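To illustrate this point, what follows is a protein record of this kind.

___
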Amino acid sequence: MSVKKDYQKNATFCKVTFMLSKKASGKAKTAHLVGEFNNWETYANPLSRQKDGSFSAALNLETGREYQFRYLLDGNTWVNDEAADRQAPTPFGNSENSVISL
């Protein structure tokens, strides 16, 4: 798992590439990026499967703020990103979300 930040010169956004390794995704057939940037819509941002079995997606996100997110595998398994800037408790109190700071 990893998150790559590519800050655009003189821009108010950052291109963020979210990557989920083959090991982290296991035998999942689909993976979606779900978070504050898409109002937690479970199917708004599908990740593309790569030749090596990993998944990735890139989004342009506004700088100067934090975003909570998680990965959703096969529509039923939630996975956090160990490479995120930090983890934060969910409002439900039973798990954590990954957090990226821009």
Remarks:
- The CA atoms of residues 89 and 95 lie 6 Å apart.
- The chain has a mean pLDDT of 94.
- The chain has one domain: 2-101.
